[in-house]
Amino acid sequence: MVSAAKIDVDFDYDGPLMKTEVPGPRSRELMKQLNGIQNAEAVHFFCNYEESRGNYLVDVDGNRMLDLYSQISSIPIGYSHPSLIKLLQQPQNLSTFINRPALGILPPENFAERLKESLLSVAPKGLPQVITMSCGSCSNENAFKAIFMWYRNKERGHNNVTKEELESCMINQPPGCPDYAMLSFMGGFHGRTLGCLATTHSKAIHKLDIPSLDWPIAPFPRLKYPLEDFVKENQQEEARCLEEVEDLIVKYRKKKKIVAGIIVEPIQSEGGDNHASDDFFRKLRDIARKHGCAFLVDEVQTGGGCTGKFWAHEHWGLDDPADVVTFSKKMMTGGFFHKEEFRPNAPYRIFNTWLGDPSKNLMLAEVIKVIKREDLLNNATHAGKALLTGLLDLQARYPHLISRVRGRGTFCSFDTPNDATRNKLITIARNKGVVLGGCGDRSIRFRPTLIFKDHHAHLFLNIFSDILANFK
Amino acid sequence: MVSAAKIDVDFDYDGPLMKTEVPGPRSRELMKQLNGIQNAEAVHFFCNYEESRGNYLVDVDGNRMLDLYSQISSIPIGYSHPSLIKLLQQPQNLSTFINRPALGILPPENFAERLKESLLSVAPKGLPQVITMSCGSCSNENAFKAIFMWYRNKERGHNNVTKEELESCMINQPPGCPDYAMLSFMGGFHGRTLGCLATTHSKAIHKLDIPSLDWPIAPFPRLKYPLEDFVKENQQEEARCLEEVEDLIVKYRKKKKIVAGIIVEPIQSEGGDNHASDDFFRKLRDIARKHGCAFLVDEVQTGGGCTGKFWAHEHWGLDDPADVVTFSKKMMTGGFFHKEEFRPNAPYRIFNTWLGDPSKNLMLAEVIKVIKREDLLNNATHAGKALLTGLLDLQARYPHLISRVRGRGTFCSFDTPNDATRNKLITIARNKGVVLGGCGDRSIRFRPTLIFKDHHAHLFLNIFSDILANFK
């Protein structure tokens, strides 16, 4: 079970080590216990985070697994990174963890400085403003709000708010609460709070029984792979989707529902790792500008370096930057970057008690130092290439099990014939010491940490090749 | 400036110590810096959290202030509490801070145990289930969702979801996304994400320009003080509001908009510290049951012990418990308690990547130990009585400046003649070494930590008495 692998980060383990089936007896016992307190049916297994290191997740039964899912893509530089341990051991940092401020009114002395050395040091070009939030959903919710305010101010053309607006907004009615909408894409995922959920269209179980808003939903391209064999078909598919976006904006305006913004993921993640070309996104950005809509890029899952650039949308080569970019997960704190013109025109308009968490900013600053020092963006490109090449090879050998191999950096995925096969493959892989994640109907997605190296890719490919060879 | 005060918690300071105006020169400089990155107009001053201890907040200009606002009511046991410092210094706890898991799928070994020793050890009677979230808004958003699912399942009467429901929900339409509503109260505050914001009606600036939902809004009683002088008027006022609640439920059902739940704060906080009688809430609970609506009590600001009971709604003496109780702020993690019947009937229905944060659960467990060990609920009752008695005395002496003194535990407040006077009083107090917070149009609210003692109340009252005597 143990594969020999080069150790190049001294805190990483040298391979998986399996002792029981997963979930093992201790995990099963704990599941039963937790299920008494809350629905625990989504739990895969229980973890021993103290023993987890680098790319390896250790469970409570002593199994050590190569983790290619990294807590739904939210562990940037591996488990128990020595730099983060050191950070926590410094007495001067204690206060940041135990005295959580209301950042919007009483920030700590180093707040701006820390934003500069962390988030602003990796800000997408043209987006010099940043607001932090506690999670991805709050990031998108507040980005929507910033967009709605911007749109309304543009429409008003002056700063005077009428008495009617101030009164009607208190009872949820226009003109104070205007009938604005965000346009989203079928297959997209932007979070699960009510505003976000109105733009999420990945799985029915996320949306069922929850009241929603009549906001326009455009089709997202369904590309054929390999891309080079289907250039014309894919171009036509993308053109069809873009046309539909414009039609929807016009159609909704006719019914007095104004599309104030468009939200899109650079790669639809929960929805099945659906890619579109850089050209598609450039044209989408143009459509947004043409119709006066804000262009919001949701980088909650794609951001942080895994595609080989810090932000996946930096691959597109936009002339005019996105208007708003949201983040969370690997960034440890949620939040959003935005252009100057989207800056709230008064205090307390984008606000909540915590507005993020300085202890997360502290850790993020260190994570970004490590990313730069260890050149982890180039590593993602390199290791991603090793992974993708290997997957393409497996696809050639096992076309009945693997299809539509795709990826950017380590942000890779492939399709399986169906949901049952996908889940079976994930389970077998887990018992062989590899944690994988699913997405969409029948895809498997790779979301390793940024310290996932070529040799981890080879290790995985060896194990998975054996699994495919023996798959029945 | 320094008042002599008994030191009974050894880490607390013995009084305010003022060196400059607040904000001082260093704060002003930092404000300018932060304002380059984001709208920083809400910032009061910048803090030195390393030097802040107990009930005292120290700013970057070296001013030490008695903090009666405690980061919008979110510091449970004071700044830099020795028990929390000790917790952070224990090497075995490091992992919890640097390896943040996706709690819903890969929880740490001690997850259930920690929920038991923390949240469940203080769970409201009859609410044995708990789900954690990262903030107050996400707590309410997800509580709404649990209520909508519960209501729909009740309506369905069976577990079979139709194909039409599964398909329509993907495009935000009924029957999959039913036209359900939460009933809320004018003056209430439940957060600022789109779902929460549809139930928030405290200030126009929170809601202006943001699209909303046509959900019913009932009047909240406007009681007259002192309560004992206006028994009959107040009863009539409460009866009027309750009648309106029932009328709205019926009226909205007629237009096919179903009120699935009622959300209410035990004391409307942001909206101006508006109280209602225990009898009002008991009757509201009955109305909810009578009409088949869930009864959601939002304890984000009132919870955690400041009213003298762990949950403010425990004062009401309900026969039938609330259905759902949300929390955040002083609880350090967001989340909600609920009855068994509100348990999601499938995994991933109430879900997000982080689902809270085990590092907050770790600190909360310690905070709850301190609350129990130091008998801080009784302390809140006792210190609150000292504070309220003193405020009533000031009201008698300065009726042109102070009116409608009210409170439960240390959760006290009073009205000033108008917004300008209120803000002036807050500024003067700050320059005399006391941090106060406003709420509503013209109220000042007290939100001290749970280690606020009688002597802190007397210290404040002395300072404030001088301020009132010299107020021009």
UniProtKB/TrEMBL annotation, chains A, B:
InterPro entries: 4NH2But_aminotransferase_euk, Aminotrans_3, Aminotrans_3_PPA_site, PyrdxlP-dep_Trfase, PyrdxlP-dep_Trfase_major, PyrdxlP-dep_Trfase_small
Cellular compartment(s): Mitochondrion matrix
Broad EC category: transferase
Pfam families: Aminotran_3
Keywords: Acetylation, Aminotransferase, Disulfide bond, Iron, Iron-sulfur, Metal-binding, Mitochondrion, Neurotransmitter degradation, Pyridoxal phosphate, Transferase, Transit peptide
E.C. numbers: 2.6.1.19, 2.6.1.22
Domain of life: Eukaryota
GO CC annotation, single: mitochondrial matrix
Catalytic activity: 4-aminobutanoate + 2-oxoglutarate = succinate semialdehyde + L-glutamate; (S)-3-amino-2-methylpropanoate + 2-oxoglutarate = 2-methyl-3-oxopropanoate + L-glutamate
Subunit structure: Homodimer; disulfide-linked.
Family: Belongs to the class-III pyridoxal-phosphate-dependent aminotransferase family.
Protein name in the entry: 4-aminobutyrate aminotransferase, mitochondrial
